[in-house]
Records
---
Amino acid sequence: MMYLSNLAFIQMNFLDVLDILLVALLIYEIYRLIRGTVAINLFIGIASIYFIWKLVVALQMELLSEILGAFIGVGFIALLIVFQPEIRQFLLFFGSPAFLESAPKRVQFLFRKINREESPLDIDKIVTAVRHLSDKNTGALLVLSKKHDLRQVIDTGEKFTSDISADLIESLFFKNSPLHDGAVIIRENKIVAARCILPITKSKRIDVALGLRHRAAVGITENTDALALVVSEETGEISYSKRGVIINNVAAHQLKTFLEKEFVF
């Protein structure tokens, strides 16, 4: 009865309510992140042990609380290892273009100052190359960098620096070319790498009929502000991806209009 009477006099202020709401929001976001994966079972198990530990501490069971406390301390390191992919995805979200664009204008201003200025892009040459590749049913994957320099992606391929040329782009994706497999990276109006390996999206919203080129295009645009252009080897269909969304069956003039909106200031 004494314990229940003490509960009646618990004082809560605005910060306490805000604290509870933020913790609830954090738990919900973690649940959304790992829902449908094996990690959800591990999370429930660790959360259960944590709440049992808190209960044991509240009941002043010293020996058991020390054992569970030591397990929780070591378990935190194990948690970082087990949930490494999920934690990486969670942290990448805060640097994603969608998050930055939803931030207040003052925050966006700071990021514009930090990032380098964008160079004009030779859109006509790129569109011409894509149209020719489409007419020949030659598969192609081009990544157009904006503020993100894509250094890690560039390191996976053959690095060089060349002016943008429709003929050069077509020759890179020629079927007998040693550099045709993988992506060509265009940064600061220069072709800087070919045969690059892109991350494949794990999104289940992608049409199952789309191949690895399209999935790689979505993957590179999920966590960067880059744009990806794809030419299907089977159909010659042109597609582009932005912010993890792919638009299929695009005409050459539509692609030019899209690129002009993205790169002409």
---
Amino acid sequence: MKSAILEAAEDLIAANGLSGAPLAQIAKRAGVAVGTLYNYFADRDALIAALFEMRRATLRPRLRAAVTAGEGLAFEARVRAFVREVFAAFEAHRKFIKVAIETEHHRLTPGTTAKDLMSTIDELVKIGAKEGIVAAERSELLAIAMTGALKALVLRRISSNAKLDDAEADGLVSLLLDGARA
């Protein structure tokens, strides 16, 4: 029942925005009474926090797996594989990404997905610095630029209902690494 409510909230917020997803509509979409919704969540903020926690439980392992997926590859190929996997994870959770974008400025829940993304990118860039592919003095700047560029591209594509694809992943990596090579 709880997951049905969370899925309904995700659907409605992604489609209509936060203001277009009152609790009564969320309950109706989930096929429960409003009172039942309140048995699980004290208010809308608690519901959204639970949605973020549920999706984080799915996304965080995918981001972690994206770092290790390219083990054994040369650094640039590994970064390309990582960005492609991040795009695939975000594409698979497109509705949730829309919810995250919609709620980001409302401060309804502490966002950890961005922190998870940054930490995985930091880890990957440190590998490039250790291998001598990325200049050590530019590694922090590259991690920040990569995180910002990924977030900006995802925001643009998700907001415009365009697909995130491998060609853009490769283009983004080329753009970033060409300015960060040792």
---
Amino acid sequence: MAPTAQRDLRAMEPFNASGTLERLHASPLLAFGPSAAGPALRRGALVAVPVGAALLWELGTGAESKGAIATGALFVGFPGLDAPARARAAWQAAVTPLVGIAAALGVLTGPSAPQSVALMLLVGIAAGYCFAVSLRFSIAGLSVALALVVSQGLGIPISHTLDALLFTSLGGLLQAVFSLCVFVAGDREEEGGGGGWDTRAAVQALSTNLTLRSNSARHALRFGFALAAGVAAYWLLGMHEHGFWIPLTILFVLRPEEGETFRRLILRAVGTAIGLLVATALSFWLSDDGVALALALTVATAFAYGLLTVQYALFTAAITTYAVLLADTLGEPAWHAAGQRAIATAIGIAIAGATFLLWSNPGERTEPLAPPDAAR
């Protein structure tokens, strides 16, 4: 294929290599897209390698970190997922310290309901506002918020704060180093469609959207308050084991557009049900085999990365499988983890939907089942 044609094809990719795309719409339940499944799954499998390596070591040897390194690698694998190897390594290296700090702050604030809610509000607003810049930047913000959500909800003793920082950061660095190795090994594709990161453009986008007339600013506030409400909900309901799945659901489904949010709510519910069934069956089948569980978790990770831009319901099924299986490795019965996940997901869906019912975008009409545009 001629170089010009290759550039044109890259420019048409909805999850484009330049990272300048502002939105990515989820496909309807019985459709695939906007990314082609083959390339997306190959990319997902590649980014899952560091997660799998960490899992095999941690679960296969019974390491003290108990999956924390692999989870850090999982979080940091999302930023720059669409990028060529060198740019992906740069994004992962940049986000790693922020993810590590978020994990540590989550452990510190986790035992206190007021501190957990307040910090989640602030981090949620900041993460939601990242949508003002680009899709890739927003995913970086969501990854930081994700680390905070999980670390707050796991009930880790405050004495392990430094461990959370170190283990999570080590997983992130593992991702960045692996991406750099992929680049050195021969993946020399460069950023296209505008040259990637532009600090001046990012600052301008953030300052321009600093008004409630902007959907990005409204989304930031909506996102922060919804996540804080999710944290408050699991404290009020006494869901101390898996309550963090309430804000986790909100984080994955709430988007600046009302129609896209309601579409993701439906896909989230379907994907969660599939993932719970798969994870529970695998848990009983694999039992206490640490290596087998590590391999199953790696496959779930690869599908989660690969399906993120192909079919959101299947992405949800994969990430649900990862979460429930990992809980099982920590000694919790799979049926219990699955039930808690189902209840928390339902509450998270209700909160995310309520945010738009309470404060919608001016002039926007909800069309949850309408086929989305490929990108905009």
